[in-house]
Recover the amino acids of this structure.
């Protein structure tokens, strides 16, 4: 939704688009701020990125045959 807002913000403005869509303008602005400065992301989001790399490495090390449950263990 933020990409849609960015594509049309010059024609209509952020607030009128957000009024028509189920998103608050503050949410749109916060998303853009996190895209510019990744340090503003939550600890959970940062930790998920670390785990995503670890899980991908583990899955590839085992020939990409492990399922979700096995990788989780």
């Amino acid at each position: 939704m933020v990409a849609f807002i960015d594509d049309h913000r010059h024609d209509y403005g952020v607030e009128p688009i957000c009024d028509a869509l189920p998103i608050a303008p503050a949410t749109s602005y916060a998303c853009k701020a996190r895209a510019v400065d990744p340090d503003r992301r939550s600890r959970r989001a940062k930790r998920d990125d670390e785990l995503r790399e670890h899980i991908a490495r583990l899955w590839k090390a085992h020939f990409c045959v492990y399922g979700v449950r096995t990788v989780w263990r």
User: Anything to note?
Assistant: The chain has two domains: 1-40, 42-73. Helices lie at 2-12, 14-20, 25-36, 43-61, 68-72. The first helix runs from residue 2 to 12. The mean pLDDT is 92.
